[in-house]
Amino acid sequence: MYKCKYYTIQELVHPWIIKKIGEINAWLRLDADALKDLDFIREEWYKLEGSGVYVNRINLGIDSRGFRPPNDPDGAWNSTHKQGNTFDLEPVNGKHRKFFNFVKQLIKDDKLKKLNTLEDFEYTRTWTHAGYMNTNERPLIIKP
């Protein structure tokens, strides 16, 4: 089991899931390589911008940006968020387009172990949807 250096389980997993299965089981259901990618993205972004990266922001009621329950109304019924390997990332400093391009370049440069898919920036202007899909494209840019 891999636990992130920079994120708590509450920042990565919907509270309903944590309540149902507990924190340890929630960590076990997250993809270890995706979690390592999150830490790497955060480290590299901090080096570049001196800024962190949000996932869930429970204090604001934002709880579906990481691992979502099967019946979660946010997103598609077959969303990769429900597989534990997709996260909606938001740069703390608000530089959304720069952050999207930054993550896109990390994928292009093969610096991430798992995350290889982004949603088109035009549809997700205030977050970067970074996930995994079975594809050889790096990155695969999807349109919701």
What does this structure look like?
This protein is 35% helix and 12% strand. It is an alpha+beta fold and 144 residues long. It has a single domain (9-142), classed as Muramoyl-pentapeptide Carboxypeptidase, domain 2 (2-Layer Sandwich). It has a 5-stranded mixed β-sheet with strand order 1-2-4-3-5. The model has no long low-confidence stretch (mean pLDDT 96).
Short description:
By secondary structure, the chain is α+β, with helices and mostly antiparallel strands. Helix content is 35%, strand content 12%.
Helix/strand layout:
Layout: H1 9-12, H2 15-29, H3 32-49, E1 53-54, E2 87-91, H4 96-108, E3 117-119, E4 128-131, E5 140-142
Parallel strand pairs: 3-5
Antiparallel strand pairs: 1-2, 2-4, 3-4
